[in-house]
Write a structure and sequence with these properties.
- It is a single chain.
- The protein has 2 domains: 163 residues, Ribosomal Protein S5, domain 2, CATH 3.30.230.10; 137 residues, GHMP kinase, C-terminal domain (Alpha-Beta Plaits, 2-Layer Sandwich).
- α1 runs antiparallel to α3, α2 packs across α3 and α2 crosses α4.
- By secondary structure, the chain is an alpha+beta fold.
- The two termini are 36 Å apart.
- The strands form 2 sheets. Strands 1, 2, 3, 4, 5, 6 and 7 form a 7-stranded mixed β-sheet that branches.
- The site of (3R)-3-hydroxy-3-methyl-5-(phosphonooxy)pentanoic acid has 13 residues, from α5.
Length: 317
């Protein structure tokens, strides 16, 4: 356990669903990428007395933290109890660059960094399964019924090919090109959007089933394009997926506008990412300069934040 002069650190990062959101709910595959550009760090210092928490949303004693932080406070309690320590004497500082409720896995990433920092603070080894177990406790409180995708992608370094009924498959990304992500500034509406797709499935069964299975097929094609380092094809596949998601009613005006701007400015493809109705969109570009240009144009057209991320083959960013 750390002394008063020491600091324990835990880190994690955001995630981006490249393709397969919504259709993944109906047992089709999804591809998600770790997104290190959106980073979280939790530091813990030893202090005298009651534990304190410092974050973007709250600063004060853990025992007075608002209910909205229950996912974190209950996880801290569970870990301290399991490891046999009193949950006192800690100054916990959460520094997150991941916007909350934008489909970037903010809550899972914060939980992951917190669990790592706590195990580091108590100088205990942390197995990956144990990490996933505690992120799961936090995510159940935050979201009710998490698929586990966010927990894995925000705490690991590899992209995942994910299907609900199977063990996630990790793969390497060596794609020549860049991914641009842009935040609409609007909160995503995961619960509503998922429910509306379920309602649509009841109302227009054939058409909706077809859209969902087409998204599933596009996800397999996206995996092939990644394996062949073919970002041009991948771009076309992502744009098709956006149209299907729009037909599923989960896009909105701002997402459609940013997708259109990205394509007009030379993106190889663009789509919403995550649950939709807000949150973020993504686009692909061949070079870093093109990606930067597209990101600037997205900012001029209403995005509140953008990120440019190398897809693996070179590390300009
Ligand atoms: O917006 P996010 O990152 O929570 O993504 C939701 C993804 C959905 O496929 C719409 C729902 C799910 O549980 O997979």
């Amino acid at each position: 356990m750390k002394t008063l002069s020491d600091q324990a650190i835990g880190t994690a990062h955001g995630k981006i669903i490249l393709i397969g959101e919504h259709s993944v709910v109906y047992n089709n595959p999804a591809i998600a990428l770790p997104f290190p550009a959106a980073h979280v760090e939790v530091t813990i210092e030893a202090i005298q007395g009651h534990s304190q928490i410092r974050s973007n949303y709250y600063e004060g004693s853990i025992s007075n933290a608002p209910e909205s932080l229950n996912n974190l406070t209950k996880t801290i309690e569970a870990i301290c109890e399991d490891l046999g320590y009193e949950p006192s004497g800690m100054q916990i500082t959460i520094s997150s660059l991941i916007p909350a409720e934008r489909g970037m896995g903010s809550s899972a990433a914060v939980a992951s960094a917190l669990v790592r920092a706590l195990f580091n603070f108590f100088e205990q080894p942390l197995e990956y399964d144990v990490l996933l177990h505690y992120i799961g406790i936090s995510e159940k409180i935050a979201h009710g019924n998490p698929s586990g995708l966010d927990a894995r992608v925000t705490s690991g370094n590899q992209p995942l090919f994910y299907m609900k009924s199977k063990l996630p498959e990790r793969f390497d990304l060596h794609l020549t090109g860049y991914l641009i992500a842009a935040d609409t500034g609007l909160k995503g509406q995961t619960r509503e959007a998922v429910q509306d797709v379920a309602n649509l499935l009841k109302k227009s069964r054939r058409k909706t089933k077809h859209l969902l299975s087409s998204l599933g097929k596009l996800t397999y094609q996206a995996k092939e394009a990644i394996e062949q380092d073919n970002i041009t094809d991948l771009g076309k596949i992502l744009s098709k997926a956006h149209h299907h998601l729009s037909d599923l009613t989960v896009s909105n005006e701002k997402l459609d506008k940013l997708v259109q701007v990205a394509l007009e400015q030379g993106a190889l493809g663009a789509k919403l990412t995550g649950s939709g109705r807000g949150g973020c969109m993504i686009a692909l570009a061949k070079t870093f300069d093109q990606a930067k240009h597209i990101a600037n144009e997205l900012m001029k057209n209403g995005a509140v934040e953008t990120w440019v991320h190398s897809l693996g083959a070179d590390t300009n960013e």
